[in-house]
Structure formats: C-alpha cells, structure tokens
Specification:
elongated, Arc Repressor Mutant, subunit A, mainly alpha
C-alpha cells in the first residue's frame, strides 16, 4: 500500500512534487512577496526537507522561471498555431478567444507580475519571456502595412484582455463576465482594424 503523510493523507506521487512546489511557492510569493519568501518557508509549507526541495529547484528564481515556462506553454502553443494559419479575420478572432482562455489559466502568474514588478524587472529573463510572447501575439493579429491607427487597435486589443485581469478589478461584476467583456472589446477592435484595410 502507499505510504501516508502526517494526518493520514496519502502522500502525493513523486511526479506531483514539482507542481506542488510551484503552487505553494506562487501562493507564498503572492501573499508575502517574492523577496520575503524563503526556500525554507516553501519547504515548511510543503512539509518536506529543504534537501527534498533542492532536488527539484535550487533557487527561488528556478521556481519562478519554471512557473513562467509551464504556465506560458499554452501561449507558446497558441503562437505556434497562429503562425501556421491564414491571416484572416477569423484566425485573428480565434487567436484572441484562445488567448483570453490562456490568460485566465495563467492569472495567478500575471497577478504575481503585477504585485512583484521590481522582481520581474530584476529577473530580466522573465520580463523578456513575457515581452517576446506579447510581441509574437501582436505580430499575428496586426498587419504591418495597415494604417498606424489600425495597428494600434490590434495592439490595444491585446492590452484590453490584460486589463480584464488587472484594471477591471475595481469594476463590480463577476470575473468571468469581465473576461468576456474584455474579449468582446478586443474582438471589436480587431474587426474594426480588419475593416480598415
């Protein structure tokens, strides 16, 4: 039979440990701040030794980079998919729909970025990963020979979805309704830009 942890709960399978470390670390980073969270505290919350934690991650930065890579993978897959599609309005609209869903799934990571901007600036590789994805998405939904106004509409469409995660927190309403409203605005902007061509 499988072994049990304290309290009689079954131990997580070994393959789950990396994910559990990421989840606890992100929770603590959001709650206390990246700088104020130590590897020791992460290990204590997981009820594992620091050595067990080191087996998977040597530093907090390693944990954070792994989160950006893992939670960002759907965005990378979306960008790869978009690059293979015809540059039609329908493709751009589908890119925005899928991007909205991917952003929702990565919301804890984006909240971390908002609340720990100094850390993100210091860890330039993280900021660069985010910028690269944004530029790639922008390239997929805007036409480089379109008018400047239409290119701005397309870039603004992406930022309107980011606003759904952050800026709209001060507006009353269900988070899913706000996500849908932000997506609707983004779709309108891209449609308007496409009609201007």
């Amino acid at each position: 039979m499988g072994s049990t942890a304290r309290g009689g709960e079954p131990k997580a399978r070994r393959g789950d440990t990396r994910q559990r470390i990421q989840d606890v670390a992100l929770e603590l980073f959001a709650e206390r701040g990246y700088e104020k969270t130590s590897l020791r505290e992460i290990a204590e919350h997981l009820e594992v030794t620091k050595a067990a934690l080191y087996y998977h991650f040597k530093t907090k930065e390693d944990i954070l980079l792994s989160l950006f890579q893992d939670l960002g993978r759907p965005l990378d897959e979306l960008i790869a998919w978009g690059a293979e599609q015809p540059r039609t309005l329908e493709t751009k609209q589908e890119l925005l729909r899928r991007y909205s869903a991917a952003l929702t799934n990565a919301a804890p990571l984006f909240r971390f970025m908002q609340e720990n901007q100094a850390t993100v600036r210091e860890l330039s590789s993280i900021g660069q990963l985010f910028k690269d994805r944004m530029f790639a998405m922008s390239d997929l939904i805007r036409e480089h020979d379109a008018s400047l106004s239409d290119q701005v509409r397309c870039v603004t469409a992406l930022f309107s979805m980011h606003a759904g995660l952050f800026a709209l927190q001060t507006i009353e309403g269900d988070p899913e309704d706000k996500r849908k409203a932000a997506l609707e605005v983004a779709l309108d902007l891209v449609t308007q830009a496409h009609q201007g061509q």
